[in-house]
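Quick question: who can interpret this fold?

. . .
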Amino acid sequence: MTFSQTMPTLVEVDIADVNRSKAEARCFYNSISTYYDTLAASSEKKYVNTGLEMLAVQEGEHVLEIGCGTGHALVQIAQITGISGYVYGVDISKGMIQISRERLRNYELSKRVSLVLDDASNLSFSSGSMEAIFISFTLKLFHTLEIAQVLAECRRILKNQGRICIVSLAKDEPLNFFGRFYEWLHDKFPKVLDCRPIPVQALLHQADFTIKDHQKETMWGLPVSMTLAAPAK
């Protein structure tokens, strides 16, 4: 059976595609891992923190972060889940995983977190094994058709009473001038600007999730959404 035959159906949505291979993405994020925090972490911090507040991780929970990057959110999550919970971080970049591992060691949290070098479109976790999933500034990096597969995997591994929070450049409403200009730049320079705004709420609905909360902000004039959802009953 081919990958395309197993891909969940994606209702047509208006999303610019990602025009670089997964190998190119892995190489790019490996190359910038040591200075990623200087480039992006400070500007993303406000939105990441809002998303974590919405996710409301509890002590004792099992939590997965997809696209854990340099590990800032992992630290916050692991400090809350405590010794009775457990946290997993997945990233496609070996360089990012290494930075996360060092950060967790510095906070003496290594025993509470497992780091996995993996592709989120085909996760190795058991079905119904997680209470919560956090995806921050990562879902927008996947090829359009792969987004459905990633969300299907999230739906599979979440417990029925679980929840997911996605922080992303957003296209839930028509884009403003900055958003349209950014999409144009993404189209012209896909290897440099490999992310793009996505309609987070529509994609979650298609993946059989129910929206529980939604907040929107702007970053450099671009729309950012923080969306909390749960498996549809």
Notes: Helices lie at 3-6, 22-32, 36-55, 72-81, 94-106, 144-157, 177-188, 200-206.
